[in-house]
UniProtKB/TrEMBL annotation:
InterPro entries: HNH, HNH_nuc. Residues 1-40 are annotated as: Disordered. This is HNH nuclease domain-containing protein. One of its GO terms (molecular function) is nucleic acid binding. Residues 13-39 have a biased composition (Low complexity). Signal peptide: none annotated.
Length: 194
């Protein structure tokens, strides 16, 4: 059996248990670590003054980073445009990377075989600039395998490609799910309705 314990009940006036604690006037107990409201305000003002001085010493650089690590949006657009087109496919949606891998515009940075990255030809860590001349669309898997190495040959990179065979029907389904429609390139060879 459990021993009986006595529980204190709140008194019926509704006061909280904290109001029954003994309190000492501020400053009467020399061992008390409490400070008076006026000294606390002085401490707060001193802290605010310190932080304000630190804040005012901060300066925002007037010039933006001239060589950001990631490519600006306009460079990515132009980089996509310079990648090889796929015959019969909308060039705004489909391209080939320099190794011949098919990539889909909507799939960026994922590990699949149709995914792509905007790659620094000369790695950023080795002084490569984030410019159009140093940009290429590259299958994401190959880009991750390449890292910042420049000594890899084209044959080595092709071996690192995530190969997948994609039929026209597969491409149509991807386009339909991503864009809601299927568009063919002007060179598709099909009939044009006038």
């Amino acid at each position: 059996m459990r021993p009986k314990t006595e529980y204190k009940r709140r008194n019926k006036t509704g006061s909280s248990p904290t109001s029954t604690r003994p309190t000492s006037p501020i400053g009467s107990d020399p061992t008390s670590s409490r400070t008076s409201p006026s000294s606390a305000a002085l401490l707060d003002r001193g802290l605010v003054t310190e932080e304000l001085a630190i804040f005012e010493s901060l300066r925002i650089s007037p010039e933006p980073n001239v060589n950001p690590r990631s490519f600006p949006y306009s460079v990515k657009q132009q980089c996509w445009e310079k990648a090889q087109k796929i015959k019969g496919r909308d060039p705004d949606r489909w391209r080939r990377d320099p190794l011949g891998n098919t990539v889909f515009r909507k799939l960026v940075g994922c590990p699949g075989c149709l995914c792509h990255d905007y790659d620094h030809i000369i790695p950023y860590s080795k002084g490569g600039k984030s410019t159009l001349e140093n940009c290429q669309v590259l299958q994401a898997t190959v880009n991750r395998s390449k890292g910042n190495r420049t000594e890899l040959s084209k044959a080595d990179l092709i071996q690192k490609s995530a190969y997948c065979r994609v039929s026209d029907r597969d491409m149509d389904l991807l386009e339909l799910s991503a864009y809601g429609n299927v568009r063919r390139g002007q060179d598709s060879g099909g009939c044009n309705i006038q």
